[in-house]
Amino acid sequence: MAESKNIILTGIRPTGALHIGHLVGALSSNVEIQNKGDYSRMYGMIADAQGLTDNFDKPEKVHENVMEVVLDMLAVGYDPNKTVMFIQSEVSELTELTFYYMNLVTVARLQRNPTVKTEISQKEKFNGGIPVGFFTYPISQAADITAFDANIIPVGEDQLPMIEQAAEIVHKFNSIYGETLVTPHAIVPKSEAAARLPGTDGNAKMSKSLNNCIYLKDSADEIAAKVKTMFTDPNHLRIEDPGNTTENPVFIYLSVFAKPEHFAAFLPEYSNYEELAAHYERGGLGDVKVKKFLNSVLQETLEPIRERRELFARDPDAVMEVLRVGTEQARAAAAETVSRVKRAMKLNYFD
After folding, report:
1. What per-residue confidence (pLDDT) applies to 1?
2. Are 312 and 319 spatial neighbours (Cβ–Cβ below 8 Å)?
């Protein structure tokens, strides 16, 4: 069998410890891709420089969160022998490519990028005005992708406009300077619920600032307490009342995490999620019972992740060595791309 030509790039911004929304939205599918092995190389980037675009006044926060993120990545199954794990800011070639690509994108095009528009609309994030670094985020992301000739980019749906703009930059560059860069293609999670897991309070998004996350490093007691106070159906006041499952975080979580073996072990009167949801919808099933089941499911799912994380955390020097080795490999690959780009742009004066 011929070796796959696919090169995969995944990226995580170190803005805090990772939660179960990250697990189902990106981490699990990335590990699945990694373990299938249908690629020539896979990269896992910790995007600390991008993390600074809206945390530029909190460098210590981003610095500390690099370790938090890499521990979570290793705990869920990222394997340094299969995925090149590296720190973005330590690969200076990415900054150089960003500089070159800036000439290929207009201000108007950046303003039309839906992802940028959405983030900018949250004005509380930018009390002092929008930093240029944040505004040009799509160009920086194009540099991250093209530096490694990555053609497969696993992302959430909200990031699709970023990959589309990266592809535009590649097309523009190649049309001007000749075929040099590889066009990226996005892949998104198959499950709609997994693509955007709501917060425990029913908010559309998990957010540390909203205190509505279940983190991968949470203790068993912390998980139980958070599940106990989860938002459900406000109209399901009595057990006999019909309940809503489609906008109910407890049932959304169960639709993602509960497997047949969980029902057999913890709630054998139901064989699958569909039977449980149907009972709740017609009435006669209380929230307390469902939450107890969800707690059991999450405890069994997250316990091995938490144990692996604690094991890796005991040797931070070994964890940093993983990043050091991966960063050296990433820098070498990016340097080859920069050399190719400069030749195409006639900037290779001393070759």
Report:
1. 33
2. yes
Give the alpha-carbon dihedral of 155, 158, 164, 169, to 10 degrees: -90
What amino acid occupies position 1? M
Give me the residues of the chain with pLDDT under 50, please. Answer: 1-2
CB 10, CB 46: distance < 8 Å: no
Could you give the CA distance from residue 109 to residue 349 in angstroms, rounded to a whole number? 32
Amino acid at the residue 144? D
pLDDT, tens only, 99-123: 999 999 999 999 898 888 877 776 5
Helix orientation angle between 160-177 and 137-146, rounded to the nearest 10 degrees: 70
Report how far Cα 334 is from the mean position of its chain's Cα atoms.
Answer: 22
Question: In sequence order, what are the beta bridge partners of 84?
Answer: 43
At residue 261, what are phi and psi to the nearest 5 degrees?
-65, -25
Look at residues 77, 73, 103, 104 and name the one whose alpha carbon lies nearest to residue 87: 73
* Domains of the chain with CATH codes: 7-196+316-344 (3.40.50.620), 220-310 (1.10.240.10)
Containing 7, the helix (H) or strand (E) segment is strand 7-12
pLDDT digits 0-9 by tens, 305-346: 999 999 999 999 999 999 999 999 999 999 999 999 999 999
- Report the predicted TM-score, pTM, of the whole model to 2 decimal places: 0.91
Question: Looking at the chain, how many residues does it have?
Answer: 351
- Structural contact between residues 216 and 19, judged by C-beta atoms closer than 8 angstroms: yes
- The one-character DSSP state at 283 is S
Give, to the nearest 10 degrees, the angle between helix 249-257 and helix 273-282: 160
Q: What percent of the chain has pLDDT over 70?
A: 94
